[in-house]
Write a structure and sequence with these properties.
4-stranded mixed sheet; alpha/beta
């Protein structure tokens, strides 16, 4: 995080070369989220404070998380509109995904 004394950090950062128009996105990893509203709020604040336009929410591929995604699919798609597969394909090609995404791993 760019502010001195701020102890928050992204779990990962994906970026391109600055000479190529540079972009970066934060990666937030969670194994078993319980409170999606709190998680989304925490991610939004990190994005704002870090000046990050997009984020990938990396979730453990588990029964719990798949059930959570089915139960909250509509609201999650609003906040994370890009499919995980598409985000991974774009990142592998070195392209800014241009939107937030959830990736199950």
């Amino acid at each position: 995080m760019p502010h001195p004394g701020d102890r928050r950090a992204w779990d990962g950062l994906v970026s391109s070369a600055a000479a190529a128009g540079g972009w970066a996105l934060g990666v937030e990893a969670e194994t078993r989220p319980r409170d999606l509203q709190a998680l989304e709020r925490r991610i939004s604040l990190k994005m704002r404070d870090a000046g990050m336009e997009h984020v990938v929410l990396l979730l453990l591929d588990s029964v719990h998380n798949r059930t959570l995604m089915r139960a909250h699919g509509e609201s999650l798609r609003e906040r994370f509109p890009l499919t995980g597969r598409r985000a991974l394909d774009l990142l592998a090609a070195g392209v800014d995904p241009g939107a937030n995404s959830i990736v199950l791993l």
